[in-house]
Write a structure and sequence with these properties.
By secondary structure, this protein is an alpha/beta fold. The chain has 2 domains: about 10-155 and about 310-365 and about 395-419, Rossmann fold (3-Layer(aba) Sandwich), CATH 3.40.50; about 165-305, Rossmann fold. The protein is about 35% helix and about 20% strand. The protein is built from 14 helices and 13 strands. It has helices at about 20-35, 45-50, 65-70, 95-105, 115-135, 160-180, 200, 225-240, 260-265, 280-295, 305-310, 315-335, 385-390, 415-419; strands spanning about 10-15, 40-45, 55, 110-115, 140-145, 185-190, 215-220, 245-250, 295-300, 340-350, 350-360, 400-405, 405. The strands form 3 sheets. A 7-stranded mixed β-sheet has the order 3-2-1-4-5-10-11, with helices on both faces. Strand 10 (about 340-350) and strand 11 form a beta hairpin.
C-alpha cells in the first residue's frame, strides 16, 4: 500500500560494474525526486555496506543537471558494488532483522537494487521477508549485467555498450593482424567475458562488414568445446591466410564439463555465489597452438575493459539504462514489490522496446542462454539472427565530457575517501 506521506528511498548497486549502471542510478534518483520523496540514500558497496551502516545522501553528490550528465557517463559502480549472498531467511533471521532495522531507522519506503542474477536473489529474499513480517517497504530490482543472461527480459542494460566495445576491439585486432606478415602465420585469441552465456562473445561477429572479414571463429560456452577440432581448424586456416583471429568465451567447457581455463591450471578462487574465477582460457589455447603448430600466437584478454569502456558506450544502452532506473522507482512508488523491470522488444527494425515488471522469483538464480538456433551447425560462429538481435542495442554514441583531453567522471573527494 502506498504511504500517504512519502518518506525516503534507498538504492544500491551490486555485482560486476558496467558502462551503463550509473545511468540507471541517475534514473532512480531523478524519478524519486520527481515523485516527491524526501531523501534518496545510496548504499556504499550494496547491501553488504548497508549492514555496516555505510550509506550517503545522494542529494549531496548529485546537485545539478551537469552532475547527472556526468554520472550517466561515469563507468563502474559510483556507489561501490559487492558480491554478497544473503542467507536463506530461515537460516539466519538476525541478518534480515538487522537490515530492516536500518531501513526503518532511515524511514525507507522503497528499496531499489541495480544488478544481475545474484542481485535479484537479494531482492527476492528481502521482499519475502517483508511479506513474512508485514513490512510495507517495497523491493524492486533494476536489471544490469553485461552478460545479458537475466531471464524474462529481452536484454539487460550494460550489454549493448559492452557488445559495441567488443565488436570495435575485435575489428581493430583483425586490422592489426592483417597488417603483419609472419613466417609461420599468427593466431590471435580474444577472450571475452560471459561465464555460461555467450551473448558477449557472439558480439565479436559485429566486427564483420564491407571493410572487415570479421573473426575466423567464435566459440560460445553453450556448446561443448573440442580442443582437437579447434587446433585442426586453426591449422587449416593458417594454410590459406597469414593472420587468424578467434573469439572465445571465458566459460567454454570440454564435453566432460571442465572449463578450458582449468586445463591450464586457472585460478581456484570462488566467490560468495559459488562462481569460479574464469581466466586464462586464451593463454592456454595460445600456448597450445604455438607448441603444436609452431605459429606466433597472441592471447588477448579484454577483462574489465569490456565493461568499463564508457568512451565507447551505446547511446541506446545509456538511455535505456536511465529508463529502467526510472521504471524501477515508478514501480516501487506505485506499490510493486518482489519485482524486476524487464524489456519487451516489439520490433527489430525500427527498433522498439517497452518496459514491464515481472516477478523476481521467476528471474533470480536463472540464466538466459543464447538459443542453439542462433549458432551455426559447426558451433564456431553465430547466425544472422544473432546479429539482428544485437545490432539495435549498439546504436548511437555518448560523447564523454572531456577535460584536458581525458573524460571527466563524477567523483566527489569526500565520497572517494569513504571507499
Amino acid at each position: 500500500m502506498q504511504n500517504l506521506k512519502k518518506r525516503n528511498v534507498i538504492v544500491g548497486q551490486s555485482g560486476g560494474p558496467t558502462s551503463a549502471i550509473n545511468s540507471s542510478l541517475a534514473g532512480v534518483f531523478r524519478t524519486a525526486k520527481e515523485r516527491g520523496y524526501a531523501k534518496v540514500y545510496g548504499m556504499i558497496h550494496g547491501v553488504q555496506g548497508l549492514m555496516a551502516g555505510k550509506y550517503i545522501d545522494l542529494s549531496e553528490h548529485i546537485q545539478n543537471g551537469l552532475d547527472e550528465e556526468l554520472l550517466k557517463r561515469t563507468p563502474a559502480a559510483y556507489l561501490g558494488s559487492c558480491r554478497y549472498k544473503l542467507p536463506k531467511i530461515h537460516e539466519n533471521m538476525e541478518t534480515f532483522k538487522k537490515i530492516f532495522q536500518i531501513l526503518d531507522d532511515l524511514e525507507i519506503d522503497c528499496f531499489i537494487y541495480i544488478g544481475g542474477n545474484d542481485s535479484m536473489d537479494t531482492i527476492q529474499k528481502l521482499s519475502d521477508y517483508a511479506i513474512l513480517t508485514g513490512s510495507e517497504i517495497r523491493f524492486v530490482g533494476c536489471p544490469k549485467t553485461i552478460d545479458n543472461d537475466l531471464a524474462l527480459t529481452d536484454h539487460t542494460p550494460g550489454y549493448g555498450s559492452a557488445a559495441k566495445y567488443i565488436g570495435t576491439s575485435v575489428k581493430e585486432v583483425i586490422r592489426d593482424g592483417i597488417s603483419m606478415e609472419m613466417p609461420h602465420g599468427m593466431v590471435s585469441i580474444v577472450e571475452i567475458m560471459g561465464r555460461n552465456a555467450g551473448w558477449l562473445t557472439g558480439a565479436a561477429a559485429l566486427a564483420k562488414g564491407e571493410d572487415c572479414p570479421g573473426p575466423d571463429a567464435i566459440y560460445l560456452p553453450e556448446l561443448p568445446f573440442d580442443v582437437d577440432k579447434f587446433v585442426a581448424k586453426c591449422e587449416d586456416l593458417l594454410k590459406v591466410k597469414n593472420s587468424v583471429v578467434v573469439a572465445v568465451s571465458e566459460g567454454i567447457k570440454t564435453a566432460d564439463g571442465k572449463y578450458v581455463s582449468e586445463l591450464g591450471g586457472g585460478a581456484d578462487y570462488v566467490d560468495a555465489f559459488g562462481h569460479k574465477q574464469l581466466t586464462g582460457t586464451a593463454r592456454y589455447l595460445a600456448d597450445l597452438l604455438s607448441s603444436k603448430l609452431g605459429c606466433k600466437t597472441r592471447a588477448i584478454e579484454l577483462s574489465t575493459l569490456q565493461r568499463a569502456a564508457s568512451h565507447c558506450a551505446s547511446r541506446v544502452d545509456i538511455l535505456e539504462a536511465y529508463e529502467v532506473g526510472g521504471a524501477a522507482m515508478k514501480a516501487a512508488d506505485e506499490g510493486d514489490t518482489g519485482k524486476m523491470v524487464v524489456f519487451v522488444r516489439t520490433s527489430d527494425d525500427p527498433y522498439q522496446a517497452n518496459t514491464e515488471v515481472k516477478d523476481v522469483h521467476k528471474i533470480a538464480n536463472d540464466e538466459r542462454l543464447v538459443p542453439r538456433e542462433w549458432v551455426n551447425e559447426e558451433g564456431d560462429d553465430v547466425t544472422p539472427r544473432f546479429i539482428t538481435y544485437v545490432r539495435p542495442l549498439i546504436q548511437g554514441d555518448v560523447a564523454p565530457i572531456m577535460v584536458d583531453g581525458i573524460p571527466r567522471h563524477l567523483a566527489k573527494p569526500g565520497f572517494i575517501n569513504m571507499l
